[in-house]
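Below is a filled-in request sheet from our internal design queue. Each sheet records the structural input a requester submitted and the sequence that came back. We keep these sheets so that new team members can see what a complete request looks like end to end.

REQUESTER: design group, bay 2
PRIORITY: normal
MODE: inverse folding
CHAIN LENGTH: 400
BACKBONE (tokenized):
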């Protein structure tokens, strides 16, 4: 990949692997990138700043000479300039500071201020890497969307054998290229996705629900996140792994979902409703567990739930794009088109849930994308691949 015009800020922290970061700078420069290096005071003890200055052809910012006044200017400048912010090697200390938002030196201050994607390449002793505190900090960072590469396993500088070796410069550069190549066509847009099944309670221990795993909605939320959107995921009951780096709003029942959507939908640019909402709920909720009456049948009366997509369609903002799903077993396109109109949607994703490889609980889907003037049948594909195409079409509709 040609990285010409890409501005990369590389933070180097104090670990023996710091010398390997010199190769990262050379490789990035070779690919045409503009590289700016920030070194912590400890990093400067391992490798002379002059090495990085020579390789990057830019001044190296070190804490050794910095004063808090210059930080104020520099941290904003480099934080804003970065297309990607890389920390390699990343010590347990910088990971902990990032997880807590501590800004007590040039590097931690700058990384806290940046809006660019952040990639950290941890390198440390195995004991430090496997310590619960580090594990928790890494989990926090991942959940915030920080990319973590490695560490690999092998013989460590301290003589121990195990996980803690910084990934090779070549791998780190490949990861930088991958992150930079990701489409950023949803940058600046707010996207809301609903996912999962609703639960309609009958008593404290029983409810009506359906088979939705949340996988399709999660794939959409992840794809939108990776394309730069600010994502809100309104989720009901799900069994799939919940995506990181998105804002989660929990909604158990259709009534909860309606409440959440009334609050959240108005501020969104794009709303995609993949939740499997129960159309009916028990008419009464028993506060105590319903007891068995031997020999007697139990009749449960169901009453209609609100149609949330319809409600969101009624309050649609100018320029907002609304998409929904249609789970069908027959006359798929006809039924989906009726829903498209009734719910004031711009796009409806129809699937025949009876086909193998489509619908609930699978990793693949077979969908037909329907707008007012176009019907596009897609072949079987992963839910993530389908999500990418759905987002492509939504953007086309937005552009008009
Ligand atoms: N939906 C909704 N509120 C409901 C039912 C459905 O918001 N009470 C939304 C779903 O999230 C989906 C779309 O409407 O985006 C279509 O859902 P689907 O279950 O296929 O259709 P229904 O409108 O419920 O019609 P039917 O069950 O009769 O097919």
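RETURNED SEQUENCE:
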């Amino acid at each position: 990949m040609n990285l010409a015009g890409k501005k990369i800020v590389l933070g180097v922290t104090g670990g023996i692997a710091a010398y390997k970061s010199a190769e990262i700078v050379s490789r990035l420069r070779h690919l045409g990138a503009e590289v700016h290096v920030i070194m912590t005071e400890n990093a400067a003890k391992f490798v002379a700043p002059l090495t990085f200055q020579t390789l990057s052809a830019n001044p190296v910012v070190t804490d050794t000479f910095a004063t808090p006044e210059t930080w104020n200017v520099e941290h904003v400048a480099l934080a804003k300039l970065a297309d990607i912010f890389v920390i390699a090697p990343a010590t347990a200390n910088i990971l902990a500071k990032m997880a807590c938002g501590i800004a007590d030196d040039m590097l931690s201050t700058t990384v806290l201020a940046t809006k660019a994607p952040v990639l950290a390449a941890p390198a440390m002793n195995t004991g430090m890497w496997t310590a619960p505190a580090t594990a928790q900090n890494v989990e926090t960072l991942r959940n915030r969307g920080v990319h973590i590469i490695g560490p690999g396993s092998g013989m460590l500088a301290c003589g121990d054998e195990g996980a803690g070796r910084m990934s090779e410069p070549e791998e780190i550069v490949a990861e930088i290229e991958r992150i930079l190549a990701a489409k950023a066509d949803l940058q600046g847009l707010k996207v809301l996705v609903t996912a999962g099944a609703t639960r309609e309670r009958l008593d404290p221990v029983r409810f009506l629900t359906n088979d939705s795993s949340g996988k399709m909605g999660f794939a959409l939320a992840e794809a939108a996140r990776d394309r730069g959107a600010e994502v809100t995921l309104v989720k009901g009951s799900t069994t799939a792994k919940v995506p990181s780096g998105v804002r989660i709003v929990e909604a158990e029942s259709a009534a909860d979902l309606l409440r959440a959507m009334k609050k959240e939908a108005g501020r969104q640019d794009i709303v995609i409703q993949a939740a499997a909402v129960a159309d009916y709920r028990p008419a009464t909720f028993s506060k105590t567990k319903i007891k068995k009456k031997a020999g007697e049948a139990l009749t449960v009366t169901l009453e209609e739930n609100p149609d949330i997509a319809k409600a969101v369609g009624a309050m649609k903002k100018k320029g907002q794009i609304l998409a929904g799903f249609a789970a069908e077993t027959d006359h798929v396109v006809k039924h989906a088109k009726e829903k498209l109109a009734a719910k004031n949607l711009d796009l409806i994703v129809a699937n025949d849930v009876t086909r193998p490889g489509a619908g609930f609980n699978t990793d693949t889907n077979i969908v037909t994308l329907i707008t007012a003037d176009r019907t596009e049948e897609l072949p079987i594909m992963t839910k993530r691949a389908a999500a990418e195409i759905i987002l492509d079409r939504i953007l086309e509709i937005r552009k008009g």
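SHEET NOTES:
- The chain has two domains: 7-181, 190-283+299-399.
- The pocket of cytidine-5'-triphosphate is lined by residues 254, 273, 275, 277, 279, 305, 307-309, 324-327, 339, 343 (CB under 6 Å).
FILED BY: M.R.
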